[in-house]
């Protein structure tokens, strides 16, 4: 996991409707001949949902949505490394990266190679709105972006309303094993859970993805232990092992669909109602 710098604010005096990314770069509309490589799986899905699938000329091996359509787009590597020969053959004009997911040296290499970087870094759930507008405005899909904004705002309002009056819970959201790792409060995942009234617990609040020890001191603090489906693919076997090792806390263990909680972009439209139902357990 990266420990990147914070996103950069737009310069003073920048128009409210300017296409400014998380690095503070003000982009011009790309035009109809834009060729896009996305190194962010959730944003690959968003591009297709904006009607921009035909402009996506490259993706990562972890870009699996939209199922059935994504296989037509060539893979140029992973989220943290690229195959430069495949990338050059794809001949993109723009490469979409993310502050959390893309290593800074890779981003710098891509920029030095002459590709226009579009840097993203949503943290708050509401950051999906400017994200939709950035990609839609940049690539000529502003109308489709506004349609997604309207659907998102409806889902967001419904999730907030459903959380009212629900007693808050402290949860441990696990993303890795050997070592055990979780998320801090300033991550998109934690903000999603907080929207539903679930507070993430971390022993190392100064790190965004800290290691933890599953001992009594930690487990006694939480109401739920959430085993996410990615990046570590937790299964029912891991939940069973946890319950056997910690019988006092066995009922706290739940499997959670990480795509619906951690994927920003258009996946949030399904993620918000999923989380509402999940947190109602």
Describe the structure.
Helix 5 packs parallel to helix 10. The N terminus is likely disordered. Helix 6 links the parallel strand 7 and strand 8. The protein is of the alpha/beta class. The strands form 3 sheets. It has a 4-stranded parallel beta sheet with strand order 4-3-5-6, sandwiched between helices.
Number of helical regions: 10
Largest sheet: 4 strands, parallel
Residues in helices, as a percent range:
25-40%
Strand order of the largest sheet: 4-3-5-6
Structural class: alpha/beta
What is the N-to-C succession of helices and strands? Answer: EEEHEHEHEHHEHEHEHEHH
Summarize it:
Helix content is 35%, strand content 14%.
Question: Would you spell out the secondary-structure blueprint of this structure?
Answer:
Layout: E1 19-20, E2 26-27, E3 36-38, H1 41-49, E4 56-58, H2 84-90, E5 94-98, H3 104-112, E6 116-120, H4 128-138, H5 142-163, E7 169-174, H6 188-195, E8 198-200, H7 216-219, E9 224-228, H8 236-245, E10 253-256, H9 258-262, H10 268-279
Task: Label this structure with key terms.
disordered N terminus; 4-stranded parallel sheet; single chain; 281 residues; alpha/beta; 35% helix
